Structure prediction request, 366 residues.
Amino acid sequence: MEIVSKINAELLEYNQKNIEKCVNDINNGNLVIFPTETVYGLGANALNEDAINKIYKLKKRPKNNPLIVHVSDWNMASIYSEINNNEKHIVEKLVNEFWPGPLTLLLKKSKFINNYITAGSEFVGLRCPDNKIAQELIRKSMCPIAAPSANISGKITSTHYKHLLEYFRNENINIIYEKEPCRYGIESTILKIENDNITIIRPGVITKKNIENVLPEITVNYKSVIQQSNSPGTDLSHYQLNKNTLLFNFIDMELLDCDKNTMENIIQMTTKYMDNSICIDFGKKNIKNRDLFAGYVDLSADGDIKEACFNLYNVLHQLNSIDNIKNVLIFDFYYGKDGMYKTMFDRIFRCSAGKRICIPTQLIKQ
Ligand code: TXA
Ligand code: MG
Prediction:
């Protein structure tokens, strides 16, 4: 027999009546959860301080972590940013190429953006989503919408309406949703622009190469997750699972200067550990050894990194609901690689808080 518990949050399909309902919420200083092409957002009128406080409270987000502001186009974004001629040249090219789409621009803020959005920073994150519900919500509300990802702070991002219910089922909040999961399933790329300096603050769907193709004369810098672990909002406790989570790779025990007894002990302990772990693979790299683990899932059996990024959060949500397994081991195929491999590494590094295990090659079938 299934026990069905009451859901307070209201799931609204896309139609004009429901869009109106959500527009009213935004205009009345309430919160709304809405889809974007990357992940779901928890939105409020960016110009209403009380509404913004509600986001921080509901999400349990530290106040030093700023919010991205969603706009309908560059016309709207230009009201909330102030850029010099150098920056104008860069921004124009990026906006023409990538907006609407999964690229957030971190620009000097104008006086119309308050410190409660930027956590005191002089820069504001502006994003123009490529999703018809998000666009309609912004246009009809006639205000910029501040929205972090719709999850409790530090927990796994929501890319499907079912994920949202794990966090918000008991809240009185309207959720306007799509049946399909979010198109990319991973957050936008965040790009900081200051004079001629362009820095990727968070890797996402749009890669360094995509940006350099549009701006061949400019070098795009990249601030890796390892370098920025002290800045606000970049905590390593992101995307936390309810299981011990580690990255894994391999080591040849012959290379270690240890005696036979120690070696056998390590192999025995690792075997035991793996037997209580689920393996998150990529491109069938560990399929031959799947029986060494308690469970196995591949983010993309075809080795397609875009598909792997799309699947990541959904897989993590599913793992959270499995009870009798202690550990999750994520195969690190991504470190040191470019493009969306960097995006994946950023997310799994945070998810594991940088912890690693090396599995002796002596244990596996090559
Ligand atoms: O795809 C996305 O960007 C999604 C959808 C909903 O648009 N949003 C999203 O928001 O991922 P959030 O809050 O989960 O992540 C935004 C990140 C945070 O790490 C935050 O610290 C950073 O962007 N951020 C936002 N505004 C910033 C600012 N003014 N300066 C520096 N970092 C900023
Ligand atoms: Mg987030």
